[in-house]
Amino acid sequence: MKVAVVGTGNMGAAFAKALDAAGIEIIIGHRDFGKAAALAAKIGSGVESGGVSTAIKVADISILALPYPSILEVLQAAGALDGKIIVDISNPITADYKDLLLGHTSSAAEQIQSAAPTARVVKAFNTIFANLIPRQGRNEKLVQVFVAGNDADATARVRGLAEKLAFEAIDAGPLTNSRFLEPIGEMNIHFGFFLGWGPTAAPAWVRF
After folding, report:
1. What is residue 6's predicted lDDT score, i.e. its pLDDT?
2. Which of 11, 45, 50, 177 is the most exposed place for a label (fewest CB within 10 A)?
3. Alpha helices in 22-128 (DSSP H)
4. DSSP reduced 3-state for 185
5. Would you say 33 and 41 are in contact if contact means Cβ atoms under 8 Å apart?
């Protein structure tokens, strides 16, 4: 399995390092080839890098580690996405991090699916801060990742990927449930940055 990490910011770097540490083949994608190459070189000599379209083309799963406002533009330049598994980890939040740009009647994931109708879009990891992507950042605690999507094979693969990264993968239903997952992600941001918990907070769904 090869995973593309599209983006080189905090989330992109965290995913790339964690995936490499788990022994998963990765390629770093970015519109700026230099940024992709720099992150790849930082992780290890065997890590590939390239443009966004190249990374998505050769990968089995592509993680869009990008802020929501830039995703649609990036996908427009990505070329053919037929059948590709695209993982949206974004939360459509305002610049001050305090509110959602959209929600309840639509979601970032659904907007991405509309923009890339032939891709298989999966919502996942939007409730996880970058600090918790590495296994060692969780202090051996089991952290949940909620996975929503309309394609059973795609969601199963993404749950499997989450489990390889030592998360508990939770089936969160169809992609429309992203309308509920994204507000949870925004609430987690409030816990982390405005309510004093710090960037190691994460929600959990508990069955009693």
Report:
1. 98
2. 45
3. 33-43, 52-58, 68-76, 108-115
4. helix
5. no
Q: Tell me the three state secondary structure of residue 4.
A: strand
Nearest to 55 by CA among 86, 19, 24, 14: 86
> Domain locations in the chain?
2-194
CA 115, 33, 125: angle at the middle one, nearest 5? 50
The DSSP letter of residue 147 is E
pLDDT for 80 equals 87
Closest of 50, 200, 26 to residue 128, by C-alpha: 200
d(C-alpha 22, C-alpha 134), whole Å? 10
3-state secondary structure of 35: helix
* Threshold 0.90, pTM exceeds: yes
Return the biggest CA–CA distance within the chain.
50
